[in-house]
Amino acid sequence: MKPLPLTVRLAAGLAVTAVEQARKLPGQLAGLPVTVVSEALQLSMRLQQRVTELAIKGDDALSVLRPVEQEPEWATFDEDEGGAAPAADAGAGLDADDPWSAEEQALAAEPPAVLPNYDELSLAQLRARLRTLSAEDLEELLAHERTHAARPEFTGMLTRRIANLENQ
C-alpha cells in the first residue's frame, strides 16, 4: 500500500490535535482568566525591568557629564537659613608634625554618646534628629565629625545648627 501524501497526513494530525485540545478546553477555561492576567503581569514586569535597566545604563553614561549633587540647590531647611560661618578645617587642633596623630585619634575615639550610630547616619537622618539635641550635644558631634570623616556638608549643618541655637 502506498503512503498518503504529506499534506494529507499533516491535515489529519492537525485535526486529531484540534479534537484533543477541544476535549481539554472545558477544564482549561476555568483557569484561563488567571493565566491571561498572569501572563500580562509578567510581560508588564519584564518591560518595567528593561526600562529601569536602560535608565540605569543611561544614568551611568551621563554621570560623566553631570556630577550628582549631594543636596539640591532648591532644597532649603530651617537650619540653613542662619548665616553661620563655614565649618573650620577638619585638621584643626591636630599636631601638624606628627602624621600619625590623626589616625591615632580616630582609632582611639569612641562614637559620640549622644548618637552612638552617628557614623552610619545619612545627612537627612541627622537633620531629622538635630532639633532634639542640645548645643553641647551638637558640639560633641561636630568635634567627632571633624576628627573622623570631616564631611563638609555634615560639619556645615552642625555649625549652622549650633549658631542658630546660640542666636535664640
TrEMBL record:
Region (Disordered): 70-105
Compositionally biased tracts (Acidic residues): 70-82
DUF8129 domain location: 119-165
Biased composition (Low complexity): 83-94
Source organism, top-level taxon: Bacteria
Signal peptide range: none
Protein's name according to its UniProt entry: DUF8129 domain-containing protein
